[in-house]
Write a structure and sequence with these properties.
This protein is of the alpha/beta class and 247 residues long. Helices cover 40% and strands 16% of the residues. It has one domain: NAD(P)-binding Rossmann-like Domain (Rossmann fold, 3-Layer(aba) Sandwich). This is 3-ketoacyl-ACP reductase. InterPro entries: KR_dom, NAD(P)-bd_dom_sf, SDR_fam.
Length: 247
Amino acid sequence: MSNELTGKAALVTGGSRGIGAAVAKRLAAEGAAVALTYVRAEEQARTVVKEIEAAGGRAVAIRADLVEPEAATRAVEETVRQLGGIDVLVNNAGFLTYGPLDEVSVEELDRVLAVDVRSVFLAAQAAARHMGEGGRIISIGSCFNGRVPGANFVLQATAKTALVGLTKGLARELGPRGITATVVDPGPIDTDMNPADGDSAAFQRSLTALDRFGEAEDIAAAVAFLAGPGGRYVTGTALAVDGGYTA
């Protein structure tokens, strides 16, 4: 690795498994000290921390249920307290939600928007208070931002598309301070939430130009690029890492 993030402090929400864990480990490998949040998967979060430490890095795990309004702000402040600051915020926590429109309850709608949108806003608001020039706010979106392949994805598409508008607003608000805001839109990624051998895997593969799933490390590499010097002139936009899903 290049160690381009040496001396930086990063927070990755939902960092105990899947894409979040891969991002946390990649940022640490690039030299950053990393805080990662979890809700119930404490053992998995501790495992990620141990792997980072075993590789010579520094990491801490923070419990934060982002359904709670104050949790995102608290996670940022705890990151600052334990790591001495925050230079990179990766909003990864979210729900993979699908189902018919008439079966979406108000409670489900509120829960998804609380984590996928509200917590991103609040974490960015809190992090921006501590970030200086060169700060990065990176949110993990979805390929549904560019293409909704069929029915049953209205809630997922709504939540993830909202990140684009939020990110554009952050880019304009924070640009004068040298802070960038971007979205990474994954396509089908092989994780425990969406395995490459799952029931809908063949359909998902057929929607990509490469006819295969990506890996969590593919998303982590994109995040590392945006967090490092290569991303210094990229802001207010979404980067599709989707195997040609939106081609």
